[in-house]
Each structure stands twice: as C-alpha cells, then as structure tokens.
Amino acid sequence: MVNVQTLIPRKSSFAGDFELNNPDFRKIHRNHLADICNIILKKIKATDASINTESHDVKEQGNPEANLIIFPELSVHQDDIDLLEALSATTKAIIFAGVVFHKHEGKLINRALWLIPYITAEKGVRWIKRWQGKYNMTEAENGHITPWRPYQLIIELKDTLPDIGRGYRLSGSICYDATDMKLTADLRDISDAYLILALNQDITTFDNMMDALHYYMYQHVI
After folding, report:
1. Pick the CATH number of 2-221 from 3.60.110, 1.10.3210, 2.60.40, 3.40.50
2. For residue range 141-178, what is the model confidence (pLDDT) as tens digits?
3. Cβ(168)–Cβ(192) under 8 Å?
4. Is 54 helix (H, G, I), strand (E, B) or coil?
C-alpha cells in the first residue's frame, strides 16, 4: 500500500477558483501530479529491491506492483485522471483519490474516485470507476460546496476471505465525514479497512482521531 502526500494544491490555491481551472495553475498542477506518479513508481521499485536483497531472493525485475495507492482530498483535477489510469495500469493497484471540486448537476461538490483495474482480452487494462461523495463540509466549504453523499460505497475483493465466505471489504471517506459516528458505526461490522482522504493542517488531532477509530471500528484505518 502506498499513501501519497502531495504538495499541490494547497488550501490557498482555491482562492477564487474552486475548480482550479486557471490555465497557468493547471499546467503546474498536472506536472506536479505526473512527478508524484513517477516518484511512486521509483519508491515501489526501491522497496521491492530492498526486500529481494534482504531475502537473497533473485527476482526478475518487471513493472513495480502495489495493491492500493491513496491520494489526498482534492489532490487530482478531473482532467488528470488519465495520469492515475497510467499509474494503475503499471502497478495493477486500486487507486482511491480525492478529486478537485467540480460541478455535478449544476452544483460544486467534493468527491473522491475509486479506480479499480481489471484485465480484458480485447483492450488490456480497463477500470471500474466509482465515486465517493463528501457530506460534512469544512468551514471554508460552507456556502460554496454542496454536500453530496447519496450512498456509502463498499468495495469487496472477490474470494479473498474464503474462510468467512466473502471478500475483503474497503470503504472510504473524505476528511470530516470520518467524524460522522453514525457512518463509522454502520461500517464497523461491514468493512475490513476504512480509508480517509484529507487535506488537513491539524495533523496531530487528525492522527489521534484515526487511532480512536481504529479501536472503535476494529479494523484497519488508513
């Protein structure tokens, strides 16, 4: 699993441009995401090489592989999802990424993308794409962004837990939705891992909350 921390955008980047469509900033933002994707590939390769060296296992070097890659809240522009697809195709990883505010049915919303790769005989790697919305707004979002969470998505990995007759289940939230105790109570007996995407300056408080959720929900909290 790779947990990504991007440097762009910052909270100040959204002043007067919630969708981050300014052409000059778009170029900077896309280049930054491309750089991050390359760093991820190098990190996975370096980790694989270290493991092989420690185990004295001689393994042919192929594409770097990962199970899951997580990007922060609001880190990816809608028009740059192709970069995530390329990363997923190379690593075979499921990607859960926060997407920049964009319009849905005429209203600005905050949501994240699940990008789930699968192989087809005709076209090679393709993706199941599903959206997870955010309902609980921050102070900066109130009055500008519309709450949107018509469902809570559960991703089940088929046949991965044969002893209990189902697959390993992932679910995720964006930032403040993780403080919704009704939601986390519902997920406690349903999901096996809870992923939280955040653009948050108060790291200590947020980390403490994650520790509490880990014990409250009896599952991995990332």
Report:
1. 3.60.110
2. 999 999 999 999 999 999 899 999 999 999 999 998 99
3. yes
4. helix
